[in-house]
Amino acid sequence: AGAGARLRLVPGTTQPPASTSTSTSTSSPDEPSTGTLAARMRARAVGAVVGSLTADAAATGVHWVYDLSLMSSLGQEARARSHAGAPPSPSAAAPSAAPPGSSQQVAAAVAAALEAPPLEFTDPPRSPFYAYACGRNSPYGEQTLVLLRSLAARGGLDCIHYAHAFATYFGEGFDGYRDVSTKGFLRNFGKGQPPPLTGAPDAQANAIARAAPLAA
């Protein structure tokens, strides 16, 4: 019965579906109530959205950094800042002689990164495509925030409202980076095309990055 109740829950509800049965529940006393399950689902939804946006801001400093040697160097710099005066380990200090892009170089970069402090909130940011201040969301995060605000304003996904909100935020006066899909959307929106024709056929990951608010 507990599993069935969980499947039927809708986020935001606190009451279970009406039942036609008058039999006494056989649920275990330790089994969470429907209200408790709903509260847990809401907490998980909030955690998914906040976690997604926080992780995005934390990663902005190294967003779109594809140079593994640079990533390794950034890790060594972070280690030097956090362990001033302490000698780096040989594996972290020695440059990799493996061919660029080879599995050996990837393994060496991963090993060096694991030994170095995490690179969240790298300051100054090192993205080669845009110069955002440390702590600002990446373009992916900014797109997610626009979707989140539209969902909150309309109580769900309203493609027309979302398209207008997206065009307003990323249109004239925007001081950040417009990626390929954003530019394509603005062109299509400017031609008066309605959703979904406003979309751009781009294969980047920003659509996936916006999944948390939709799922929540």
UniProtKB/TrEMBL annotation:
Entries under Pfam families matching the protein: ADP_ribosyl_GH
SUPFAM superfamilies associated with the record: ADP-ribosylglycohydrolase
Secretion signal span: none
Region of interest (Disordered), ranges: 1-35, 79-102
Biased composition (Low complexity): 11-35, 83-102
Matching InterPro entries: Ribosyl_crysJ1, Ribosyl_crysJ1_sf
Superkingdom classification of source: Eukaryota
Record's protein name: Uncharacterized protein
Native source species: Chlamydomonas leiostraca
